[in-house]
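Long-time lurker, first post. I've been practising inverse folding by hand and with some scripts of my own, and I keep getting stuck on stretches where the structure tokens seem ambiguous. Below is the full token string for one chain I'm working on. Before anyone asks, I'm not after the true native sequence, just a reasonable design that respects the backbone. If someone could post their per-position residues I'd love to compare against what I wrote down in my notebook.
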């Protein structure tokens, strides 16, 4: 059996690179085993559970290439790639397992009309191989350590599939025997649709742990109605730190009622197009198409022109949409930075033209 170091040394050598030609060594080793790749992170699906009517939970065993390059902190996301009808599609998913686990656990909510979530919900099976490319996100627990410093009273709030990153944090703190108090509030449509309900029910009442559920389509939960002062008082008044992930309305309600709030969102923000678009020409050089800039991000303008550029998060985090700008200037809607140089890579989901732009697309 090759160790990762030996595999890298032999398969990563210049000679092997030369012999395997333009396709690279991974195109050959994957014929032996699909997860046996040197350059590409991949994972095998080793378990599939459908514990609610609108979600699927996958346990992934990442290959050595992924684990050697990445460690995933509780609350971060991974970029997962699947091939559907011959095209690769990448989406971000936040593992729900505790930090340091050898396997990744993804719980994926089923979205009506959603491409990748539907595919995995319907087709995921044991033995399936998916791509894993990159880890990111700063929605993570504050530094903890033997000194015991850091927040002691922590409130987690989630809605729907937004439970995953906070579940990872909860599991991590419990594994670390967090000495303070934890409250966990989860909103779902109904008890049947509440992910991790049984595990959370078993945790409720452990010393220092309080779990409350609210159901938006029934009054059967511990909490009735939407998050507000009452729910906060029932869960944990004046927490030291709050971590929330869920629909925008839930995140905003938590921000309104709490201090020291850390937020994560799975949905792209709505970018207001500028009142006065630059009016420049946007040239998608590889396709021989050019359009007048209408002020929207380049990804949307390309899609309106009939192109189908690869994309994932559509909010500037996964880098799947990155394309080479060969001329012109663009402004990044998140950072505000204007990139003016030729031959720069830009994330087209969050870049708007500033005058004429040529893009390799
Ligand atoms: C940091 C981060 C972490 C994430 N973690 C998780 C996680 O742990 N679990 C999870 O479930 N999700 C997570 N997501 C969301 C996930 O990345 C995907 O966005 C989600 O699975 C939907 O992808 P999709 O390919 O199914 O939808 P897409 O095909 O990309 O469509 C996007 C949205 O448009 C809607 N849509 C698409 N086509 C149509 C249509 N024809 N008519 C109407 N509506 C349509 C879909 O319902 C969907 O909501 C995360 C996102 C981010 C940014
Ligand atoms: S689609 Fe994720 S960065 Fe653009």
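-- Answer (accepted) --
I ran through it position by position. Result:
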């Amino acid at each position: 059996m090759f160790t990762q170091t030996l595999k890298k040394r032999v398969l990563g050598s210049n000679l092997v690179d030369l012999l395997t030609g333009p396709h690279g060594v991974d195109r050959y080793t994957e014929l032996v085993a699909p997860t046996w790749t040197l350059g590409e992170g991949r994972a095998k699906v080793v378990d599939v559970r459908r514990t609610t009517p609108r979600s699927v939970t996958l346990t992934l065993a990442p290959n050595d290439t992924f684990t050697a390059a990445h460690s995933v902190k509780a609350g971060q996301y991974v970029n997962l790639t699947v091939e559907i009808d011959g095209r690769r599609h990448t989406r971000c998913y936040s593992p729900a397992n505790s930090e340091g686990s050898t396997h990744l656990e993804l719980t994926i909510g089923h979205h009506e009309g959603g491409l990748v979530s539907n595919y995995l919900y319907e087709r995921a099976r044991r033995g399936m191989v998916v791509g894993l490319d990159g880890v990111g996100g700063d929605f993570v627990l504050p530094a903890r350590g033997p000194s015991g410093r850091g927040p002691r009273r922590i409130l987690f709030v989630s809605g729907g599939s937004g439970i995953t990153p906070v579940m990872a944090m909860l599991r991590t703190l419990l594994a670390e025997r967090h000495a303070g108090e934890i409250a966990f509030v989860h909103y779902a449509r109904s008890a049947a649709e509440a992910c991790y309900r049984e595990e959370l029910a078993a945790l409720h009442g452990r010393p220092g742990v309080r779990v409350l559920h609210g159901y938006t389509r029934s009054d059967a939960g511990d909490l009735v109605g939407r998050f507000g002062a009452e729910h906060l008082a029932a869960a944990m008044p004046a927490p030291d730190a709050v971590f929330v992930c869920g629909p925008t309305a839930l995140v905003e309600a938590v921000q309104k009622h709490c201090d020291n709030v850390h937020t994560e969102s799975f949905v792209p923000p709505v970018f207001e197009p500028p009142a006065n678009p630059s009016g420049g020409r946007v040239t998608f050089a590889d396709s021989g198409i050019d359009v007048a800039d209408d002020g929207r991000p380049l990804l949307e303008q390309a899609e309106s022109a009939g192109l189908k550029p690869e994309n994932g998060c559509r909010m500037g985090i996964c880098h799947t949409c990155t394309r080479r700008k060969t001329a012109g200037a663009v402004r990044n809607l998140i950072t505000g930075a204007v990139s003016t140089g030729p031959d720069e890579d830009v994330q087209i989901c969050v870049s708007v033209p500033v005058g004429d732009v040529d893009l390799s697309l």
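A couple of notes from the structure itself: The radius of gyration is 23 Å. The chain has four domains: 1-32, 38-136, 153-265, 280-359. Happy to go over any region you disagree with.
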